[in-house]
Amino acid sequence: MESTSRNFNANVRAALANDALQSALGKIESGFVANRANAAARLPEFDALRDQARDIKDHILDNLDFYLEAFEARVLESGGQVHWASSAADARAAILDICRSVDARTVTKGKSMIAEEIGLNDFLEENGIEPVETDLGEYIIQLRKEPPSHIIAPAIHLVKEQIEEAFRGAHEGMFDSGRSLEEPRALLEEARAVLRQRFLDADVGITGANFLIAATGSTVIVTNEGNGDLTQTLPKIHIVIASLEKVVPTLEDTSTLLRVLARSATGQEFTSYTTFSNGPRRNGDPDGPEQFHVVLLDNGRSEMLGGPVRDVLRCIRCGACMNHCPVYGAVGGHSYGWVYPGPIGAVLTPTLLGLDEGRHLPNASTFCGRCESVCPVRIPLLSLMRHHREQAFEDKLSPAAERTGLGVWAFFARHPALYRFATGLAMRALAWAGRKQGRFSTLPFAGGWTAHRDLPAPQGDTFQRQWSARGGRRR
Amino acid sequence: MSKARPEVGLFVTCLVDLFRPGVGFAAVALLERAGCAVTVPRNQTCCGQPAYNGGDRANATAIAKQVVEAFEKFDYVVAPSGSCAGMIAKHYPQLFAGDPAMAARAGDLAGRTHELISFLVDIRGMDALDVKFDATATYHDACSGLRELGVKAQPRALLERIEGLRLVELPGAEMCCGFGGAFCVKYPDISNKMVANKTRDIAATGAELVLAGDLGCLMNIAGKLAREGSPVRVRHIAEVLAGMAGQPAIGEGRR
Predict the structure, then answer these.
(1) What pTM did the predictor assign?
(2) Minimum distance, in Å, between the CA of residue A350 and any CA atom of chain B
(3) pLDDT single digits (tens) A219-230
(4) Would you call B132 an interface residue with chain A, using a CB distance cutoff of 8 Å?
(5) Between chain A's N and C termini, which has fewer beta carbons within 10 Å?
């Protein structure tokens, strides 16, 4: 998908002025956040499990080539095929080839962030193949022709009136126009009714994968709607698209990661459906695809593996970091401008698209640390965002005025005597000017502050001057 | 440290030094009440976070070195801010990754650096205060103190010891107020949304006073409340604990 990350500030202004969005975002705290806290509280060993999950992922990253080759061997043994794609274009081409081999006209899709990353839907459409999203949230935003705003709740930016509007438009002529779509249940039933036929018509089903198990060659998806199961069992061909770091050594490790994934994501102990796929249909199997393909996407991962943001590859895409992020909560996922929003996007987007494009994302954080405090695999998100800031500073990407200001401040901060003298004068002047009101509603060079709030005036002399005047202990 | 009267170097913090010296004097009073000898090293300006978080590692490291040199002779470093104390205690050692000698000195200092309120309670065992203050107050947990240093129960424990003070829990007390250092001026619209959420939650408590342990957050919250015309007053917790809440509140004119 086309990135608008460089227009972050414009995206933010639009998001803050969007009442429906603000209303939708207001539900995250009482939903995801409260549910995760309850789930964590119910499991005394939750924090120990997070440590285990982190260690498993670190071990995988240390031995990524080994586990990927093992995974490939198991898939081949089970009669499946593996396609290595070093770039998004390679992955798209591999998928198109498979689709063309059966003259596919429609493709059903389970939810996949990697499909978003490689811009799969637009590409398939350009090539005359209709992609049909089957996850309810993804289906809604496909109708609205917009990208997901969250990695596990793609339509979280919408209120139900907007969904009703999308359904009435897209389903015109299919249902009684006087029907009530007041209740969320009615919306769900209508989507199900439409999708049922699409499932049956599809030539190819494409899903993502939460895990790829090296020991068994299984691909694993977790869903709450069961749409993934129909996507991968009904069509003749099942394509799994996943990035390299999704591989996990064993079923045992998978189970540890599943335990932290659901709790961190939705606060569930386990998602409603956890589906393991192994190769194509075997003789005697009652159902399943005739062909089973796994497209393994690198797209920058192997480079990240040896670099400073390596730890971000531990991510299991639970979404907890964005659920808990006050910036995400204020501006929503679309403001981030590309596939991955929130703190994880603030690390991934500049890494995958470059700092020139993604510079704002790691800067637009107060470093409050709430994301890190809930990350199930303990990714040091703040350090990784700070790494991007350091790189941007080194590359002189921030506005000149900002860098000059920082430089002048740092000069004074490194010369304490000069600093005491200058701040002593400045604070006395400022305190005098603000002595009656105790605050300023406007002040030269402080527009960023005073646009929205008053600036409290200094009390008077600096502490340093007063301490000296009182003869306080010095060194 | 088993010294009867430990030597404490007060890291005033740049915002307290410049905008609210009263908090510095409150910190000194509390530390002395807790049996400490307080010194204020002359050569301190700032902990370096503006540079560190702005990506300017060279200046951040230079400022950190200056702080280590000015403070390493004391038994403890105490700051009336979880953010600045967290910078010294959690981040300084990483700044000197390529300089083992400085890394060791910074690591040593880090282990002796504390946020004021948690120092009083956890290290000095303060549990009584001879202070009266008649007010209904609420308390905001500033992010760095909360998440980097575990400052949560200590301020509440001391506030409960103040005669006349009724403490009401703030809904979303652990949510960032939107200050974030330079963030609040680099991304003022997002910051505004966050601080507006905070003042909305504060209003819901019915408290007449908001307290916190970090002046950056307090100036942000006070500035927003003032802009909204709210009568709620804002103070650093140290002012109240030290019985020095007679001075005008943050952003309030002289009476």
Answers:
(1) 0.96
(2) 15
(3) 999 999 989 999
(4) no
(5) C
